[in-house]
């Protein structure tokens, strides 16, 4: 089948898609967006998290056909037009929250969604929101630091009262 | 003269500020930006026009004879390009890290659940999977050999590898063993010297590395009949060395380039899909990509050895250890992998960082029909640490002593002898690490009035509002060797080039080091900056075009490849300065490269590097070998077997819901001596990551194997810690330089994985009063509902 949707604001089209293919597979292998990662392909690790119509989902659990005509935003779409890092991306780099980095794309999307909903989450809120994203390298401490840093920067940019 | 000296000092001050990205600083990862943009190419992201997808047929049985394999139906599936069995292997059929006992594809029998039997290449991964299902294999299913008793009685239960097979096994199902005796050993007379004796039996489940990036890579057939492989691995050269004979190619026709690695932790030390992808590519003449699904990943790599251990410790009334008697049995599974070295570690480190006058130790790895076990972070020291630290707590209780004081009283220090007879000839601040970890402030006590239920055991499931929750605190310390031991000439190679690009001096570092996430690429740039006084450093992609870097394991890469980068950079600096001396007749012997300039401590700035270098590049290649070690004596375990020791101490605070058996680690503190922190940010990240894997082993992680069959090959059923399971991990680092190591550094990555598990179990014991002799600790162990 043919699937057309919008990825990071651009229309994309994939041909000869087999019905069983996931959105993750289509993104990675057919439309040249390998940023979302394939760690379990079972909805358990969160590495493949993307926005689908603005809601974070595990793209490995979304059948390709389901995205027909919809809007997908991946980690590749988090940077600015000029390739400048987004606020959450920069915070992950600065805090040392990236080691092997395989978990990073999913965590970035999930963190972006968290801060959009609540720019000043408590530590427990952060842990709850990211509990579906496994990281095997960092021990999560630096990820906590990164999210706190991104939150602080976001609040100062957007003038949220502390 | 005076004026010039002052000028020189001023320059140096400015320069010191500018070179904050040298060693000791925390510059950001050079690959970090790519990684957060999703542009970093991991091995599973490799793509080639026209590529095929490979996959393997895997055995559903842990032990069976293969009577026949019929691939004809699979070949008929449209889109299938090749179906291969061992008969299609052009060269050697067996390979292995230490013992070549593993067939690249099963021959006449399978020895573990998940062993690869045949390969398929097709135009879509799903086509390949469907074709695999059409391969017909006739098995004669045999009873698997899975327990220690069965393994040690081959007359009754059989051999995993028959003695007449490709290599004879003098030991039956024993893959490797190592004994050790020190002092008087352990005899009745020695036992009589102790006032208090405690003993225990301990068990460690099978842990998995569970790196997130699946085994994957792309093999591209080359015009010269060779193959190029883009691969996530820990050691490019040793992969190639094992692959080439199987592919029947000379080494130089098997070229490996490191593709992005999504974590490793020992699980990529053995080959997984390397040979398979290359066989398919050479057979079809097309690029072939293989990406394991998560279940295949659980079948496709070796795990941490499960262990059964018996310990007996004796001490005088005032707490001085008199003897330790230890037996450690590791289940190595179907193939040897790194089992011999794991046994060597367990035997030589298995009594912990303590002075014990009399020791008897016997460590064994068995061959069985369980999944193969090999390298995992901590490598033989992890299992033993659970044993000896549990014993120390037991002893403290029997003596009525504080467990930390008992450990401090017996802690090794510089100048002491290990039971192997090896002197500890570098700082060994075990007592101090324990003191510091004890002195760190404790988290506030549980406050039932103002608590967020999400922080309790059971967390989001809302299983408790504070009732039935008990807090416990536990301590531990551990010891790990750094680098490869027992006489292995473990070396690394680096090439460093200095040239002028865009009017600036730029250093290029080329090594074959596998960057698996640990941050070696950051540190290599820091070393080059420090040694060459430049800001710009580029890291060449790791491949087999430069000499071996050895493995990214055993906490050795910063020590070994970092050491090689230092040597090569020093050689470049030497050549550059010689050129200057020649050309300008400099007399001073106090020259260095700082801030892009040649600087004399006495005479100030002499010349910018750019002017001295001009259009010629200087390139030097160096190997770094660590000091020699020797194999342990087979019977006594004596010998200078290890390059360096590293130590970490932990304190765990846990809350336990004693009614439901749920555990929440509230805080896990670590204090570690790292010799010299080349990059403090990375060092802390490594320690926190190591502690978290240790937490996993303590309370949740286990590959459940029943009658040789793996029951939980998925992230649904094999649980690794999430951010909710992981507490704050405060870290303190000590920097006591090791005089034998580059910059005085000490390997970092493994020590916390060795030490942290026992502290968590100790804390749970304190909270519950349960004996807890097996890890992972499960709810049923805490509620007596087994
Ligand atoms: S790959 Fe989708 S959740 Fe793991
Ligand atoms: S950084 Fe490796 S999995 Fe998170």
Automatic annotation (TrEMBL), chain A:
SUPFAM superfamilies: 2Fe-2S ferredoxin-like (SSF54292), CO dehydrogenase ISP C-domain like (SSF47741). InterPro entries: 2Fe-2S-bd, 2Fe-2S-bd_dom_sf, 2Fe-2S_ferredoxin-like_sf, 2Fe-2S_ferredoxin-type, 2Fe2S_fd_BS, Beta-grasp_dom_sf, Diverse_Oxidoreductases. Residues 1-78 form the 2Fe-2S ferredoxin-type domain. This is Carbon-monoxide dehydrogenase small subunit. The keyword Kinase does not apply. GO terms for molecular function: 2 iron, 2 sulfur cluster binding; metal ion binding; oxidoreductase activity. The keyword Oxidoreductase applies. It comes from Kitasatospora cineracea. Keywords: 2Fe-2S, Iron, Iron-sulfur, Metal-binding, Oxidoreductase. Pfam families: Fer2 (PF00111), Fer2_2 (PF01799).
TrEMBL record, chain B:
InterPro entries: Ald_Oxase/Xan_DH_a/b, Ald_Oxase/Xan_DH_a/b_sf, Ald_Oxase/xanthine_DH-like, AldOxase/xan_DH_MoCoBD1, AldOxase/xan_DH_MoCoBD2, AldOxase/xan_DH_Mopterin-bd_sf, Xanthine_dehydrogenase_dsu. GO terms for molecular function: iron ion binding; oxidoreductase activity. It comes from the Bacteria. Residues 37-143 form the Aldehyde oxidase/xanthine dehydrogenase a/b hammerhead domain. This is Xanthine dehydrogenase molybdenum binding subunit apoprotein. It comes from Kitasatospora cineracea. The lineage of its organism: Bacteria, Bacillati, Actinomycetota, Actinomycetes, Kitasatosporales.
């Amino acid at each position: 089948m043919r699937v057309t949707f919008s990825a990071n604001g651009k229309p994309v089209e994939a041909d000869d898609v087999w019905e069983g293919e996931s959105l993750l597979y289509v993104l990675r292998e057919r439309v040249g967006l390998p940023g979302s990662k394939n760690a379990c392909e079972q909805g358990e690790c969160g590495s493949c998290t993307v926005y689908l119509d603005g809601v974070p989902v595990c793209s490995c659990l979304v059948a390709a056909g389901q995205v027909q005509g919809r809007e997908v935003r991946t980690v590749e779409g988090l940077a600015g037009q000029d390739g400048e890092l987004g606020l959450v991306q920069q915070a992950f780099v600065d805090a040392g929250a990236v080691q092997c980095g395989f978990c990073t794309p999913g965590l970035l999307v999930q963190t972006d969604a968290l801060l959009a909903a609540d720019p000043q989450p408590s530590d427990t809120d952060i842990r709850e929101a990211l509990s579906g994203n496994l990281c095997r390298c960092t021990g999560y401490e630096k990820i906590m630091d990164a999210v706190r840093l991104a939150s602080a920067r976001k609040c100062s940019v957007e003038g949220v009262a502390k | 003269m005076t004026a010039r000296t002052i000028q020189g000092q001023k320059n140096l001050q400015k320069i010191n500020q500018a070179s904050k990205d040298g060693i000791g600083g925390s510059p950001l990862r050079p690959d970090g930006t790519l990684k957060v943009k999703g542009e970093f190419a991991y091995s599973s992201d490799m793509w080639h026009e026209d590529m095929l997808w490979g996959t393997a047929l895997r055995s559903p049985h842990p032990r069976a004879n293969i009577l026949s394999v019929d691939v004809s139906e699979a070949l008929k599936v449209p889109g299938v390009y090749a179906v291969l069995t061992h008969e299609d292997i052009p060269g050697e059929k067996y390979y292995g890290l230490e013992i070549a006992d593993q067939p690249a594809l099963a021959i006449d029998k399978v020895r573990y659940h998940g062993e690869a039997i045949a390969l398929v290449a097709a135009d879509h991964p799903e086509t390949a999977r469907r074709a695999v299902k059409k391969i017909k294999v006739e098995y004669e299913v045999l009873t698997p050999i899975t327990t220690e008793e069965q393994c040690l009685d081959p007359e009754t239960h059989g051999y995993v590898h028959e003695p007449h097979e490709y290599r004879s096994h003098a030991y039956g199902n024993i893959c490797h063993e190592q004994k050790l005796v020190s002092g008087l050993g352990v005899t009745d007379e020695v036992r009589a010297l102790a006032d208090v004796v405690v003993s225990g039996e301990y068990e460690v489940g099978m842990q998995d590395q569970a790196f997130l990036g699946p085994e994957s890579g792309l093999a591209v057939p080359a015009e010269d009949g060779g193959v190029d492989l883009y691969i996530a691995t820990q050691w490019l050269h040793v992969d190639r060395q094992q692959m080439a004979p199987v592919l029947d190619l000379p080494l130089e026709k098997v070229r490996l380039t490191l593709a992005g690695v999504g974590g490793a932790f020992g699980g990529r030390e053995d080959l997984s899909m390397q040979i398979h992808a290359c066989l398919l590519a050479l057979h079809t003449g097309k690029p072939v990509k293989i990406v394991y699904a998560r279940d295949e990943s659980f079948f496709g790599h070796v795990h941490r050895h499960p262990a059964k251990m018996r310990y007996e410790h004796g001490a005088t009334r005032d707490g001085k250890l008199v003897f330790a008697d230890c037996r450690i049995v590791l289940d190595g599974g179907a193939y040897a992998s790194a089992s011999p070295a794991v046994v060597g570690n367990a035997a030589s480190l298995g009594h912990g960082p303590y002075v014990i006058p009399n020791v008897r130790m016997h460590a064994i790895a068995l061959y069985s029909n369980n999944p193969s076990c090999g390298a995992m972070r901590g490598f033989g020291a992890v299992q033993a640490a659970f044993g000896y630290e549990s014993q120390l707590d037991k002893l403290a209780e029997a003596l009525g002593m504080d467990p930390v004081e008992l450990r401090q009283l017996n802690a090794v220090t510089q100048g002491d002898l290990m039971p192997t007879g090896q002197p500890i000839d570098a700082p060994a601040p075990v007592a101090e690490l324990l003191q510091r970890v004890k002195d760190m402030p404790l988290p506030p006590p549980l406050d039932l009035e103002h608590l967020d239920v999400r922080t309790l055991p059971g967390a989001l499931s809302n299983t408790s509002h504070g009732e039935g929750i008990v807090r416990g605190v536990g301590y531990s310390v551990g010891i790990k060797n750094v680098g490869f031991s027992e006489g292995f000439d473990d070396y690394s190679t680096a090439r460093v080039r200095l040239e002028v690009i865009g009017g600036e001096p730029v250093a290029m570092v080329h090594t074959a080091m596998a960057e698996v996430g640990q941050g070696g690429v950051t540190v290599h740039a820091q070393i080059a900056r420090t040694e060459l006084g430049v800001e710009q450093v580029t890291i060449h992609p790791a491949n087999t075009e430069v000499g071996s870097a050895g493995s990214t394991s055993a906490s050795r890469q910063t020590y070994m490849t970092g050491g090689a980068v230092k040597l090569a950079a020093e050689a470049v600096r030497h050549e550059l300065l010689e050129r200057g001396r020649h050309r300008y007749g400099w007399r001073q012997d106090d020259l260095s490269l700082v801030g892009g300039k040649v600087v004399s401590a006495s005479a100030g700035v002499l010349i910018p590097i750019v002017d001295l270098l001009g259009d010629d590049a200087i390139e030097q290649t160096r190997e770094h070998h660590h000091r020699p070690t020797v194999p342990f004596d087979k019977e006594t375990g004596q010998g200078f077997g290890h390059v360096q020791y590293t130590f970490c101490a932990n304190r765990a605070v846990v809350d336990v819901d004693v009614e439901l058996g749920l555990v929440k680690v509230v805080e896990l503190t670590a204090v570690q001596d790292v010799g010299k922190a080349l990059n403090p940010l990375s060092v802390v990240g490594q320690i926190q990551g190591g502690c978290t894997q240790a937490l996993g082993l303590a309370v949740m992680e286990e590959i459940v194997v029943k009658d040789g069959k793996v029951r939980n090959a998925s992230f649904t059923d094999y649980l690794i810690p999430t951010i909710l399971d992981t507490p704050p991990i405060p870290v303190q680092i000590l920097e006591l330089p090791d005089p034998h190591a580059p910059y005085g550094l000490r390997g970092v990555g493994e020590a916390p994985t060795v030490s942290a598990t026992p502290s968590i179990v100790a804390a749970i014991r304190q909270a519950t009063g349960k004996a807890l002799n097996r890890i992972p600790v499960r709810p049923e162990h805490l509620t007596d509902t087994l």
